[in-house]
Amino acid sequence: MILITGATGTVGSEVIKALLPAQAGHLRVLTRDPGAVFPDGARKVVADLGDSDLAPVLDGVHAVFSITHGLDIAAHDQRLVTAAQRAGVERVVKLSVRNVGHDGTDPITTLHRAGEEAIRDSGLAWTFLRPTAFMSNALNWAGMIAADQVVYAPFAAGRAAVVDPADIAAVAAACLTQDGHFHRVYELTGPEPLSPADQVALLGEVLWRDLRYVEADPAGMVAQMVSYGMPEEQAQAVTELFRSTMEPYNSEPTGDVTAVTGRAARSFTDWAKAHRDAFPIPEAVPVAATNGESR
């Protein structure tokens, strides 16, 4: 049995797709939302990593995909791995962030580093996936694009080899079901470094629209996330994580997606084509809230 935590999130939902139908009946998905709906073949378990009894959640599980986010990353990783030890779990694959391996000191990176250390110290077989920023973060621009064809986002000088969450999921699925990935760290990227303006330009080409990029104050990003209900401390932490696109290493593509999956990482243009319908023309389209999992 494979357990996926954070199953309704950006990456978790893609991992479910990547594992089905091959793992149908052998896939358990953890959510705090009793109303969450998952594909056939995935068994839903409603629990909270923060305070639920995890013994029944992990009963019969041999592999765990750990997705933790917000300001409870380290605490939830520790609770999960402690319960996994007791349950006899064989392997843990953790979704982390690329900054961990490059001396990042922002709050979210620091929490992921502590979570990784807890898993290393557990004695379980582990694999760490450290992606750079997600291509899907561009979905947060849909409302702005529909309203006036202008994208306002901070860190204009930042460049990241943004990665498709579906590629992260493909790597995760391999690490959960195949041998040869124990005690490995994979830095997951797309094929090319892109600034916010580059991404907007490529979106414009795919959508056949004359889009513009305007640099925004990071404080505006914080205010936007707070307006969608995110605690201010967490919004500040997420913004500091995004600031890491200013660091040179985030612009350097790796070959880890190809090394694990045997195929090239998806380009931003191809991702945009696949998600064209998420950028409708009509105005008054709400901008999606950025969550703690987003990179």
From TrEMBL:
Stored InterPro entries: Ergot_Alk_Oxidoreductase (IPR051604), NAD(P)-bd_dom (IPR016040), NAD(P)-bd_dom_sf (IPR036291)
Gene3D superfamilies on file: NAD(P)-binding Rossmann-like Domain (3.40.50.720), UDP-galactose 4-epimerase, domain 1 (3.90.25.10)
Top-rank taxon, per record: Bacteria
Sequence ranges assigned to domain NAD(P)-binding in this UniProt record: 6-178
Listed PANTHER family: PRESTALK A DIFFERENTIATION PROTEIN A, PTHR43162
Identification of the protein by name: NAD(P)H-binding protein
